[in-house]
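Weekly structure sync - notes
Attendees: PM, LS, DV (DV joined late)
Agenda: review two folding runs queued last week.

Item 1: First target. Sequence and structure tokens pasted below for the record.
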Amino acid sequence: MRGETDPRVFYGRSMAELARETLPRIVGLIQHLIQGDNKRDGVEVRQAQPDGSVRYAMSNAHLVQLDGHYTRLWVILRDITEQKRLQAEHEALQLQFRQSQRMESLGLLAGGIAHDFNNLLVVIENCAQFAGEDMERNPTEARTSLRHMKDASTKAAALVRSLMAFARPKTGVAKPLLIDDLITELLTLLRRLIPGRIELNSQLHSGAAMEADPGQLEQVLVNLVINAVDAIADTGEITLTTRICTLNELQRAAHPWVQHNDFVNISVCDTGPGVTPEVSSRIFEPFFTTKTEAKGSGLGLSVVWGAVKLHGGFVEVTDRNDKNSGACFQVFLPRSSGVVQPTKAPNPVGEVWLGTETILVADDHELVLGVTKSLLERAGYRVLVARDGQEALDVFEANKDSINLVLLDAIMPKITGFTAYQKIQAAKPGVGIIVASGHTSDVFPEEWLQATKPVMLSKPFRSEELLKSIRSVLSQGSS
């Protein structure tokens, strides 16, 4: 374990000297053995080497008694350094596979998203023209056109947020969620993956909670839907269903890693030709595929299997249970006993959040800067503006005694929002700061976000959302 080749280096040296890192665990192990059943297997041991590297071993320990007294401690160490290295490489490859699959999915989504955006732009551009023409001669029609523009922009904002939520790198942390809610939110994007000749239906009836990584579950569903699309040559149907189920003995025997009995079953069924027994037996193997080279690498379903197994579940492939041909991919995931409140849309804010304080707005987009300045001035605020990060610092330094709050764009030229945030906070501790952006993952480190918990405002924001956030931050600063 120490990498020494000459046993004489151990002569006259105590255990405390030879195993400083592992001594506390050894003492704890001995205490456990004395208080327990005299035997302890499967304890991992870490040992630093003279050259600075680290080796790992799995220990099996046994206390030996003689005349009622413990006289010896037998310990067998099995070197698992190489095994841990291979496991780390495997996990890194799995992560690369998932990222690759996500990028492929985003490429498929791009066409559908562009189509929807073009439709929304048609509405916005034409209604803007109608409103301008009708402003004086027909105010009622002008207001109708403005209402249509607002509806279209709201739909565009929801589309962007859905896409960003899917594209944003996930931390890989499991959290409580309602699987029906996750699928409902994902359906908007899933429909962009599917050509018009195929119908996507859902029957979500589980109402079940679980502990899961939402990013990985999204990728599982996207991969299964893409697989179903590829299986349907002409017109057809894909159906997503959820239900609560209990495993039978055959399922438990076939998947020995399963530790729960109550499961959520997510089915993705298609009306394609189905899956033969020969294909079914190999379908989750990496790089195994029945598709042409242009249609896939064969990694999609292996990523599905790996992600589901990581959550303590498994996947089965069955035939549809109705008169139609096709295949059903049945995902089984452990059900949580915890209670998760359903996601509800926020109620519209009816109050007007006015103020007279001074606010610095920093944004490199001239139109956004102008609209935000007008919005805040209408609410009574005094507004200073900056068009990049450096100008934001300069304006703040010149007016820091009078500035009560800073509204920062996360991504700006010269100096990023992250750097500007830190410098402004250092120059005037306690000043209110709100970060407004479409996404922050490339600018603000995840660890910093978790530790600092800055006030974030997602673009595009409504006037009520911005004014309410500003009033909330200013109220906290004065309390």
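Item 2: Second target, run right after the first with the same settings.
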Amino acid sequence: MTSAPLPSASHVVPSWSAHHAAVLHGLLESNEGVALSLLSQIAQARGRLDEAEGYYRQGLAILQDVQNAANYGSAALALGALLIQRRGELDEGCILMHEAIRIRHDLGLPGEDAPRARAEMLGCDA
């Protein structure tokens, strides 16, 4: 599923500077990445694994583009677990899970132990 291009921020508020327009565009894209991650969770819960994986990958690409590390880490952790548990793709799944754990650590976010334990439980080396 491809998404429609986002409206130009200058069309929303014509008097804004290019900087303000770029910030608004980044926020809209970041929210799109988060929304795609949520859609992936819904698709996964309904057993639509191909659809879920696609949404996760689209969301990750957007979140990486707009440098939204915290949400990227959450989505990477979820996709990594999906790939391991449902697809048996240990290599890529572990890479994503370790990346998510590193992001949590680098950002100083709480709750690093639970994702680390989950990764280990799924067969990812520490």
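Discussion on item 2: The first helix runs from residue 9 to 12.
Action: LS to circulate a short write-up before next sync.
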